[in-house]
Amino acid sequence: MPRLRSEPQFALGLSVDRDALQSLSEESAQRLQELAVIQDGQAAETTRLETERKNRKEVLARISAQVARQRREASVLERDARRLTKLVEELARLLAARKPLRQKSTNERSPEPRAEGTAFQNSKADCNYPYGGNSSGASAVLWRAGYPGAG
Questions:
Q1: Cβ count within 10 A of residue 20
Q2: In 3D, which of 129, 107, 119 has the Cα closest to residue 149?
Q3: Spacing of C-alpha 130 from chain mean position
């Protein structure tokens, strides 16, 4: 038969077991706290990473939309440039095919500046009347106004 321990030894063994159990319980509680801190840190890190991923996704969507808009603008500008080129070429072709302007008739020429004298000096000699008339009406008006050479 196994030998039983004596009561004081048994009490001492229970006390040692109780102290070991208390020590294990405290160590377990401390490790649970450490695990809770680690889990909180992981949860915070996961939240931060998800927020960062969401922000990057939004930035990527904005950049993608901007690139699409700029591509559309570029294609519109290219189309406008092609249309302008065609228009300029067409205008150049029309100008090249156009008949030269007719020469001005003698009645449409501009007066030549005079080096000396007044504006109405020798006015009868310089007048080009398209209707073949004379300047008698104009001379009378000029003569009455006192211009030399009129009349």
A1: 10
A2: 119
A3: 62
Whether residue 150 contacts residue 143, with contact meaning beta carbons closer than 8 Å, is answered with yes
Q: Which two tokens stand for residue 86?
A: 């065609």
Task: Assess contact for 101 and 131: CB atoms under 8 A.
Answer: no
pLDDT means per 10 residues in the chain (151 residues)?
Answer: 59 74 94 97 97 98 98 98 97 87 62 57 52 51 55 50
Tokens 């603008």, located at residue: 73
The CA distance from 81 to 132, in Å, is: 56
What pLDDT is stored for residue 142 in this prediction? 52
pLDDT at 27: 95
Beta-carbon contacts of 124 under 8 Å, excluding residues fewer than 6 positions away, are 134, 135, 139, 149
Half-sphere exposure of 138 (CA within 13 A, CB side): 13
- DSSP 8-class letter at 132: S
Task: State the pLDDT at residue 65.
Answer: 98
